[in-house]
Design goal:
The protein is an alpha+beta fold. It has helices at about 15-25, 115-120, 125-130, 135-140, 145; strands at about 30-35, 35-50, 80-85, 85-95, 100-110, 155-160, 170-175, 190-195. Helix 2 (about 115-120) packs across helix 4. It binds a DNA duplex through strand 3, strand 4 and helix 4.
DNA sequence: ATGTCGATTTGCT
DNA sequence: GCAAATCGACATA
C-alpha cells in the first residue's frame, strides 16, 4: 500500500478543470486518515463545476460567501459542504486563486479500510459503501467542520495518483445529477464515469 | 422494478 | 421561509 501514500502534486490541480477531472482524478485514489483509521477508494465518477458561467455551481457569477470561500483558494484543497440536512459532499478545488472551479467526487471503488467503511456506514455490501457523494463522505469519515479547506497534499485527506493510465474510451460523459434547476447548464455532459465498473452512483 | 416521500440543517432571498 | 450537487425506507405492481 506504498502507492496510496503518494500525493498528487499541487500543480496538477491547476490544470484545466476538465483535464483534472478526466486525466488526473479518474482512476486516482482518494485516501483518508480520520480517527486513526485509514480508508481509501479508487475514483470512478466525478462532476465538473465552474465558477462564473455555470448556473449549477455554488460560485455561479463568482458569488463569494462563507460557504463558497474555499473554492476561491488555489487548486489542491477540499471544498466540503453539507446538503439536504444530512449529507456531506466532497469536492477537489482546482485552478489558480480566484478561479472558483471544483470537481465533485461522486463515487469510489473501496480499496483499503473496507471494514472501517462498513462500520461507519452500518452496512456490509461493497456496492453501496461508496457509490454516491454522500455515501463516500460517510465511509471516509469526511465532515465539513473537520475538513473543509484542507490541503490535499497533507496527511489527513489526500489523493494518490492512478497506477494505470485511463484511456478516453474508458470514460463516459453524461449530464450531472441533481442540478435540474440550472437551466441550460443542467444538461451539459460534465459528469465523467469510468466504464466497466459496478462502483458508480445510480 | 419503479415511485414517492421524509429526514434535517445550512445559507441565502 | 425555502430549496438544496442525497439517501434509504416503504409502498405499490
Amino acid at each position: 500500500m506504498e502507492q496510496l501514500q503518494q500525493k498528487i502534486p499541487q500543480e496538477q490541480y491547476l490544470l484545466d478543470p476538465f483535464r483534472v477531472a478526466t486525466e488526473v482524478l479518474l482512476g486516482a485514489y482518494l485516501c483518508s486518515n480520520v480517527d486513526e483509521e485509514f480508508t481509501a477508494g479508487k475514483i470512478t465518477e466525478v462532476e465538473v463545476y465552474l465558477g462564473g458561467e455555470d448556473k449549477a455551481c455554488h460560485a455561479y457569477q463568482f458569488k463569494r460567501t462563507k460557504r463558497t470561500e474555499v473554492m476561491f483558494h488555489q487548486g489542491g484543497c477540499a471544498y466540503i459542504f453539507f446538503v439536504y440536512g444530512m449529507h456531506h459532499q466532497f469536492c477537489v478545488v482546482t485552478s489558480p486563486i480566484d478561479s472558483p472551479n471544483a470537481i465533485l467526487i461522486r463515487a469510489l471503488e473501496p480499496v483499503a479500510g473496507i471494514s472501517t467503511m462498513q462500520k461507519r456506514r452500518h452496512l456490509q455490501q461493497l456496492t453501496l459503501l461508496t457509490t454516491g457523494p454522500g455515501r463516500l463522505c460517510q465511509a471516509l469519515g469526511i465532515q465539513t467542520k473537520l475538513h473543509n479547506g484542507i490541503d490535499l497534499t497533507g496527511n489527513t485527506l489526500w489523493i494518490a495518483p492512478a497506477t494505470t493510465v485511463i484511456k478516453t474510451e474508458q470514460i463516459k460523459a453524461t449530464p450531472r445529477i441533481g442540478v435540474g434547476y440550472a437551466q441550460e447548464y443542467a444538461h451539459k455532459n460534465w459528469r465523467f464515469v469510468l466504464q466497466n465498473t459496478p462502483f458508480v452512483s445510480k
